[in-house]
TrEMBL record:
The lineage of its organism: Bacteria, Pseudomonadati, Bacteroidota, Bacteroidia, Bacteroidales. It is an enzyme of class 3 (hydrolase). SUPFAM superfamilies: (Trans)glycosidases (SSF51445), Galactose-binding domain-like (SSF49785). Residues 1-19 form the signal peptide. It holds the Pfam family F5_F8_type_C. This is alpha-L-fucosidase. Its EC number is 3.2.1.51. Keywords: Glycosidase, Hydrolase, Signal. It comes from Parabacteroides hominis.
Length: 713
C-alpha cells in the first residue's frame, strides 16, 4: 500500500506541475523584463532548457582532447608561428590506437586540435602551406584529421575539431592575413581553388576581411570533407594580436549551423569553459546562467571563473537567462602537449576517475586531453590509465543495484523521457530492494530537456536499524548528480527534495557500488617530532585541482599504526591526529571494508628540534645536534627537483665543531629514477654533538631543505 500511495502521489504532483508549467514556454534563452519580481525570475529560470545539441553533448559525458603539432616535437606548450613545418618530424601515425584506448576509457567523442595558436594545420588545406602538407610525413600527403575521422567511424566515436582563432603564423609572416587591415567586402565561401573542387556545392556570401575569409574557408573544408562534426572548439587564448583584428563570429556561426547542424560550439553560446585547466569542479554547477546581453546574438563571450555562476542571487541580476553547460577540461599529462616519458608526469587512475565522478556527476562534461607522442601513438602509461579508468567506470556504473527494486517506475526505467514531478514538501521518493544491497554511489538526474534545472538542495536517506538515516546531501542536480558516501547496506532508500525552483522532474535514480581500495600511505615528521600519517599524494605539479582524491574515492578508510616494529592491524592504535615519536620505526596501514592496503614502513631518526646548521657549502653540511648523541647511521632523502644520479661522500663527527673525525664513506646511486630515502648504517655506533656530511652534491636549495633531507639514527 505504501508504494501504491507514492505512485498515486507522484501522478497527482505530475498533473499539478504540468498545469503550472503551461503558463510559461520552455526556451533556451528567456529575457528578464525590468519589472520582473524575484519570484518571476526564478520561474523563468525553471523554464530554461538545453537545445537538442546541448543535451546530446551532455549525454556524451566523457570526451577526449588531442593536442598534437609542432609543439610535440619542440617540447613547447605554445609555438611562435615561426617554426619550419619540417620540425613536425612525424614518421608513423596510429589513430586506431588512439581510438581503441579512448573507447576503452568509455569516451564518446574526440576533439582534435587541427590548428593551435601557431597556425600549423593538421589537414590538407587548400588555403595554406603552413601545415602537414609541408612536412615529410607521407611525402607531404598525410592528413591527420582524415586518419582520425576514419578511425572514429571504425570505433564508433564522434569527432570534434579545435580551430584556434589566434594564428601566430599569419601574425608573424609578412604576407600573413591576420590584422593586415584589409577591407571588408563581399566574399564567397568557399573560395574556389583550381584543381581542388569541393563535392559539397553549398555556397555562402559574407562581408568579411581577409583573415575572416581564410578562417571561414578552413571551416568549410573541415565541416564538409571529414564526416559529421559534433563540436567546434574555439579557444579564447591569444598569445599575440595585430592590427586590431576582430572576428566575425556571426558569419562563423551561420556557416557552422548550416554545415554541422548537430554540432555544439564551445567558447560561445552552447558550451562554456569550466574556469580552470586542472579538473577542478564547483560543488554547485548551474547551467542556467545570467547574461546582460542576449547570448544568441553576442559575438564575444568572457570566461566565467567565479565560484557562483547561477544561484538565485546571480539570476536576480540578469537581463537574460540562458542554458550554457560547462566542460571540465584538463590534461592526463603535465601540459597539453607531449614532452617525454621520463619527467612529464601522468595523472593516476585514481585522479582521472575522481575527476570523472566530480565532473560528470556534477552537471558538466569531462574533457580529458591525451597528447600523442612523437611516434604518433599514445604512450603506454597513458593507455594504461585510460584502460583502468574505463574498467572502473564499467565496474561501478555498469550495474544498477535498483534493477529489481520497487518504486516509481518513472525513475527506475533508465528512460530520460519519463519522469516524476516531486514536490519539495512531499514524502520524497522511496525505493525498496527485494533484499539488502551495499551501495556507496547514488546517481540522480533531472528531466532537464522537458522541465529544466530545478532542484536546489536534496538529501538521501537509508533505512537502517528501523529508521531513516541521512547518508548524503548536495545542492543542485541538473543533468546528473553522483553522490558519494561510505558503504551503506540497506533495503530502502529515500530521496528528499529540500529546496527547488518550482516542481522538479526526476527522471533517473540508480544505485551503484564502487570497489574502494585502501590508499597507500605516507608519513612526515616535523622538526619537533610530531608525526602525520596521510594518504600518499600524487606527484602531479601541473595546475593542481586541490581535491583530496583518497578521501573522495575511499571514504571510510581508517589508519592503524605501530612504533615498535610489529606489523599493524585493526587491533593496533588507530591514527586520529598527529603524535610525538622519537628515534624508532613507524609501520602503518589503511584498512577499508576489512581489506588492508600496503604497509608503510618509515624509520625516523633523532628528533631535530634544537638542531642548527653551523656550516654549509655546495658540497657539505655541518649540523650541531644541541647535545652529544649516540649515532648508528644516517639517511638521505633526495629533493624532488635537482640533484645528480649518484651522490658519494664522507660522514665526519666532532664534539667541539672544530676537530673532525671521519666515520665512514657512503654512496647512493640511481637517485633520479628512484628518488627514495637511502640509508647508510655505521659499522659501529659513535657519540657526537656535531655531524658533517660531505658529498659530491647535496641536492638542496636552502638550509631548511638540507636539514630536512638528512636523518640521523
Amino acid at each position: 500500500m505504501k508504494h501504491t500511495f507514492i505512485l498515486l502521489l507522484g501522478a497527482m504532483l505530475s498533473l499539478q506541475g504540468q498545469a503550472q508549467d503551461k503558463q510559461m514556454k520552455f526556451q533556451n534563452t528567456i529575457p528578464v523584463e525590468a519589472g520582473d519580481s524575484h519570484a518571476t525570475i526564478i520561474e523563468k529560470a525553471a523554464h530554461v532548457v538545453p537545445t537538442p545539441n546541448q543535451l546530446a553533448a551532455l549525454q556524451n559525458e566523457f570526451i577526449a582532447f588531442i593536442h598534437f603539432g609542432p609543439n610535440s616535437f619542440t617540447r613547447l606548450e605554445w609555438g611562435s608561428g615561426k617554426e619550419d613545418p619540417k620540425v613536425f618530424d612525424l614518421k608513423e601515425l596510429d589513430t586506431d590506437q588512439w581510438c581503441e584506448a579512448m573507447k576503452a576509457a568509455g569516451m564518446k567523442m574526440v576533439i582534435l586540435t587541427v590548428k593551435h595558436h601557431d597556425g600549423f594545420v593538421l589537414w590538407q588545406s587548400r588555403y595554406t602551406k603552413h601545415g602537414i602538407m609541408s612536412t615529410g610525413f607521407r611525402d607531404g600527403k598525410g592528413d591527420i584529421l582524415k586518419d582520425l575521422s576514419e578511425s572514429c567511424r571504425k570505433y564508433g566515436l564522434k569527432l570534434g575539431v579545435y580551430l584556434s582563432p589566434a594564428d601566430l603564423y599569419h601574425i608573424e609572416n609578412p604576407e600573413g592575413l591576420y590584422g593586415n587591415l584589409s577591407k571588408y567586402t563581399t566574399r564567397t565561401i568557399p573560395r574556389e581553388v583550381p584543381g581542388r573542387p569541393f563535392a559539397n556545392k553549398t555556397r555562402f556570401e559574407f562581408v568579411v576581411d581577409d583573415y575572416n575569409e581564410y578562417f571561414l574557408n578552413q571551416l568549410f573544408e573541415i565541416l564538409t570533407e571529414y564526416g559529421p562534426i559534433h563540436e567546434v572548439w574555439f579557444d579564447g587564448a591569444h598569445p599575440k594580436r595585430k592590427g586590431g583584428q576582430t572576428y566575425n563570429y556571426p558569419a562563423w556561426k551561420k556557416l557552422i549551423k548550416a554545415l554541422a547542424p548537430n554540432a555544439v560550439i564551445f567558447g560561445r553560446e552552447d558550451v562554456r569553459w569550466c574556469g580552470n585547466e586542472a579538473g577542478g569542479t564547483r560543488s554547485t554547477e548551474w547551467n542556467v546562467i545570467p547574461y546582460q546581453a542576449n547570448p544568441d546574438t553576442m559575438s564575444n563571450f568572457a570566461d566565467m571563473t567565479d565560484k557562483d555562476l547561477g544561484s538565485r542571487e546571480q539570476l536576480y541580476k540578469a537581463r537574460y537567462l540562458h542554458y550554457q553547460q560547462a566542460e571540465t577540461n584538463t590534461s592526463i599529462r603535465e601540459g597539453w602537449f607531449y614532452r617525454d616519458d621520463t619527467h612529464q608526469k601522468v595523472r593516476s587512475t585514481d585522479d582521472v576517475f575522481d575527476i570523472y565522478e566530480r565532473a560528470v556527476g556534477g552537471n558538466s562534461t569531462f574533457l580529458l586531453n591525451i597528447p600523442p607522442n612523437r611516434d604518433g601513438k599514445f604512450s603506454p602509461t597513458d593507455v594504461t590509465v585510460l584502460q583502468e579508468t574505463g574498467q572502473r567506470i564499467r565496474e561501478t556504473y555498469g550495474t544498477d543495484l535498483f534493477r529489481q527494486a520497487e518504486g516509481p517506475k518513472e525513475v527506475l526505467d533508465q528512460n530520460a523521457d519519463t519522469y516524476l514531478m516531486v514536490d519539495k514538501d512531499g514524502a520524497g521518493i522511496v525505493i525498496s530492494t527485494p533484499r539488502p544491497v551495499t551501495l556507496n554511489r547514488l546517481v540522480i538526474q533531472e528531466a532537464i530537456a522537458a522541465n529544466g534545472e530545478r532542484v536546489e538542495k536534496h538529501a538521501v536517506d537509508a533505512w537502517i536499524d528501523g529508521g531513516w538515516k541521512e547518508i548524503a546531501h548536495a545542492t543542485n542536480i541538473g543533468y546528473k548528480r553522483i553522490l558519494r558516501f561510505p558503504d551503506v547496506t540497506t533495503d530502502k532508500i529515500r530521496v528528499r527534495i529540500l529546496e527547488s525552483r518550482l516542481t522538479p522532474a526526476i527522471c533517473t535514480i540508480s544505485a551503484h557500488h564502487y570497489k574502494a581500495r585502501p590508499p597507500r600511505l605516507s608519513a612526515q615528521r616535523s622538526m619537533d617530532g610530531l608525526v602525520t600519517i596521510e594518504p600518499m599524494a600524487q606527484e602531479f605539479g601541473w595546475k593542481a585541482h586541490g581535491e583530496n582524491i583518497a578521501e573522495n574515492l575511499n571514504a571510510g578508510f581508517k589508519i592503524y599504526y605501530t612504533t615498535d616494529g610489529t606489523e599493524p592491524s585493526a587491533s593496533s592504535t588507530e591514527y586520529k591526529a598527529p603524535f610525538q615519536m622519537g628515534n624508532s620505526e613507524l609501520k602503518a596501514v589503511a584498512i577499508l571494508n576489512g581489506e588492508k592496503g600496503a604497509t608503510l614502513q618509515e624509520r625516523f631518526g633523532l628528533v631535530k628540534k634544537g638542531w642548527k646548521v653551523t656550516g654549509k657549502t655546495s658540497q657539505s653540511l655541518a649540523i650541531d645536534l644541541g647535545s652529544q648523541q649516540t649515532v648508528s647511521g644516517f639517511a638521505f632523502t633526495p629533493q624532488k627537483q635537482g640533484g645528480k644520479g649518484t651522490v658519494a661522500g664522507i660522514i665526519r663527527i666532532s664534539n667541539d665543531g672544530k676537530n673532525w673525525k671521519e666515520v665512514e664513506r657512503f654512496e647512493f646511486g640511481n637517485l633520479i629514477n628512484d628518488p627514495s630515502k637511502r640509508y647508510h648504517h655505521f659499522k659501529q655506533t659513535v657519540k657526537a654533538r656535531y655531524v658533517q656530511v660531505e658529498a659530491a652534491e647535496i641536492a638542496a636549495r636552502t638550509e631548511a631543505a638540507a636539514l630536512a633531507g638528512i636523518d640521523l639514527f
